[in-house]
Amino acid sequence: MHATLVLGELRVHRLGFGAMRVCGPDVWGPPKDRAAAHRVLRRAIELGADFFDTADSYGPHVSETLIAEALHPYPAGLLIATKGGLVRPTRHAWDHDARPEHLRAALEGSLARLKLERIDLYQLHAPDPKVPFAESVGCLAELQRAGKIRHLGLSNVSVAQLEQARAIAPVVSVQNRYSLVDRAADDVLAACERLGIAFLPWYPLGAGRALASARVKKVAARHGATPAQVALAWLLARSPVMLPIPGTGSLAHLEENSRAAALEFGADDLAALGA
């Protein structure tokens, strides 16, 4: 895991770890085996991941709590990114709440659970259709000026929203859904490349659809790799600002995913994958 990129002045490896799946089923409640979740988090560090992505809505609150339990005091160089702006009133609900008053409370909760005085990267989880976007971003900019946030990121935004946010405060990352089989955010990725902003693809395996793709299986067989490794390696090859954050609660899958960083494609592989 050698390739790196910069978020603000912070340099991290380009294959991060998404800490959503260490929670219970449906990203709800604690895991069945808390010690096993701790082992996954610690092993991710051992494998070279120094960028962890989480959110207060994962669990809710469970993912952040597990990260602190497993890793605090944190190793030097670990960047923990979290998010606020979605709430979980029930197991299957992901509701918007990006009101300034909620974001302030959400940030304080994340700081307490993660045992931090400042969040290195705090991301607006999603624009709230009931709240002016500028109000949500402006609130986070105020919290940044207060020293509680180091860098700001956005998630689930359009190019226009990215530009609107950048007029309010510097933005170092965007996290949108993106994978080999879902490239709807190509325009946002292009904007991030132009601006030197990190792009974090969520659902980097296309909710499993990439693994079933015949072209992915063909390239995987050629390299003696797994379809998941090919799908992740394609993302790394797709753009120098790409920072995939595959998530898992399984040690075996974690080990498999980490090896994607060593997979190199030739022009024929990229052509076969429709790069």
What's the arrangement of secondary structure elements?
Layout lengths: L3 E4 L2 E4 L3 E2 L15 H13 L4 E3 L8 H10 L7 E6 L1 E2 L7 E2 L3 H15 L4 E6 L8 H13 L3 E7 L3 H8 L6 E5 L8 H10 L2 E5 L11 H10 L3 H12 L12 H8 L8 H6 L3
Parallel strand pairs: 3-4, 4-5, 5-8, 8-9, 9-10, 10-11
Antiparallel strand pairs: 1-2, 6-7
Q: What are its keywords?
A:
275 residues, alpha/beta, TIM Barrel, two-stranded antiparallel sheet, 38% helix, 17% strand
Please give a quick description of this structure:
This protein has ten helices and eleven strands.
Shape: globular
What's the domain count? Answer: 1
The strands making up the biggest β-sheet line up spatially as 3-4-5-8-9-10-11
Order of helices and strands: EEEHEHEEEHEHEHEHEHHHH
CATH topology: TIM Barrel
CATH C-level class is Alpha Beta
Distance between the termini: 22 Å
Beta-strand percentage? 15-25%
Under the CATH scheme, the architecture is Alpha-Beta Barrel
Tell me the number of strands. Answer: 11
Taking the sheet with the most strands, its summary is:
7 strands, parallel
> What is the average per-residue confidence, as pLDDT, rounded to a whole number?
96
- Percent helix, as a range, is 25-40%
Kindly name the structural category.
alpha/beta
By CATH, the superfamily comes out as NADP-dependent oxidoreductase domain
Radius of gyration: 18 Å
